[in-house]
Each structure stands twice: as C-alpha cells, then as structure tokens.
C-alpha cells in the first residue's frame, strides 16, 4: 500500500510534522547530500509499494552563480544543475507537492525560471507537481506551561497566490489563485487567512 512522505529541510524554521498512519516524515539540512535524500525516498517507495504524495517543505532561493531559481533542499539544492536526479523517482512517486515560496516563479531570473524547474521535475519524475508562484505563509506556534515550551508542527494550510499543477508530461494541467501573502515595511510575511492586507 502506497504512503505519503513529508521531507522538511530544517532551514525552514519550525517543527517537522510527526509521522503517522500512512505518512512518513524525515528531515534534511545543509549537511545532507542530495543523493541521500533521493536514496531515502526510493527506499521508502520500494518498501511501501510506492509513494502517493511526496511533500517537500523548504525555502525557495535564487542561485546566484547560475542566475536561476531553486529549492533550498539538502547541501546541493534543487536547481537546473541537479534537477536530473528526479529521474530516480520515475515509477516511484505519483505526486510531488512543493511547499516552497516562489517554486514556480516566472519572473525571478533572466533565464531558467522556477516554472521551467518545476516542469523538469514533473517530466523527469513522471509525476504530477504542485507549486506556488509567490510567497507562502505557514504557521507554527509555541505553547508554554510552567515547566516547558512545546512548538507546534509546521502547518501550511491553504495556498497563497497563484498555484500551478504540472502533469507528468510537464504541461500545466490546472491553475488556481488564492489571496496572496504580503510583506509589511519590515519585511515580515503576513498570512492573508489571518489578517487582511492594509
């Protein structure tokens, strides 16, 4: 029976969601080789008869030396130089959900934009890929008692701004738009589900 997998790059602040029935979670960071991430995902797929949804929680980044957008996942990042690794997930993963700001951005760089990166991920993995074009707000909070504080797991909730779904052939099969997240003068990201834009 297939499972869902959540991968959290811990440079995205907040507590990793806990594994549960039908869902396995694991963490990566700046010291994790990208090959280890793919080895782990392939191993989980083989052990469980496939992965229905692979959810990646990470920061979107601009890769300066390549003038391209990317995903801050593992040591090497996901960018046009490393995207070929997704071919290892062919016949292993049905859907990939990128909880990443600007993953499918179209105007961030002079060439090699996020839209093309997401299209390549879909083509190489032969999987459906869901990604946002703008900032994504998420929540995490601390609950404190007299003796300790506990942080809640990261919760992305609804998407913000335009969202694109790519088919396994790399073509866009669906697009929708929710209210956009916004930043104030101090650069703090605000969640449109919690407070209205001024």
Explain the overall architecture.
The structure is a single chain. The protein contains 2 helices and 13 strands; from the N terminus they run ββαββββαβββββββ. With 198 residues, it is of the alpha/beta class. The strands form 4 sheets. It has a 7-stranded mixed beta sheet with strand order 2-1-3-6-7-10-11, with helices on one face.
Q: What is the topological layout?
A:
Blueprint lengths: L2 E7 L13 E6 L5 H15 L2 E7 L1 E5 L4 E5 L20 E7 L14 H12 L2 E5 L9 E3 L4 E3 L9 E6 L5 E7 L3 E2 L5 E2 L8
Parallel strand pairs: 1-2, 1-3, 3-6, 6-7
Antiparallel strand pairs: 4-5, 7-10, 8-9, 10-11, 12-13
Spatial separation of the terminal alpha carbons: 47 Å
Using the alpha-carbon principal axes, give the shape: globular
Query: What order do the helices and strands follow?
Result: EEHEEEEHEEEEEEE
Q: Structural class given helices, strands, pairing?
A: alpha/beta
| Total individual domains | 1
Rounded mean pLDDT score: 86
Question: What labels would you give this structure?
Answer:
single chain; 198 residues; alpha/beta; two-stranded antiparallel ribbon; 2 helices; 33% strand
Task: Put the structure in a nutshell.
By secondary structure, this protein is of the alpha/beta class. It is 14% helix and 33% strand.
């Amino acid at each position: 029976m297939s499972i869902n997998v959540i991968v959290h790059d811990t440079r995205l602040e907040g507590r990793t969601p806990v594994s549960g029935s039908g869902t396995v979670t694991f963490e990566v960071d700046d010291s994790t080789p990208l090959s280890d991430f793919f080895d782990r995902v392939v191993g989980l797929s083989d052990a469980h008869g496939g992965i229905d949804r692979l959810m990646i929680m990470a920061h979107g980044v601009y890769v300066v030396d390549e003038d391209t957008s990317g995903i801050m996942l593992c040591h090497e990042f996901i960018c046009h130089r490393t995207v070929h690794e997704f071919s290892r997930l062919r016949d292993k993963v049905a859907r990939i959900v990128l909880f990443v700001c600007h993953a499918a951005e179209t105007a961030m760089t002079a060439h090699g934009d996020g839209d093309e990166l997401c299209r390549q991920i879909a083509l190489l993995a032969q999987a459906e890929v869901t990604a946002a074009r703008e900032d994504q707000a998420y929540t995490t909070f601390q609950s404190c008692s007299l003796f300790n504080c506990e942080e809640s797991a990261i919760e992305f909730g609804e998407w913000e701004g335009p969202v694109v779904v790519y088919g396994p052939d790399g073509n866009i099969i669906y697009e929708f738009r929710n209210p956009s997240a916004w930043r104030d003068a101090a650069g703090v990201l605000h969640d449109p589900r919690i407070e209205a834009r001024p």
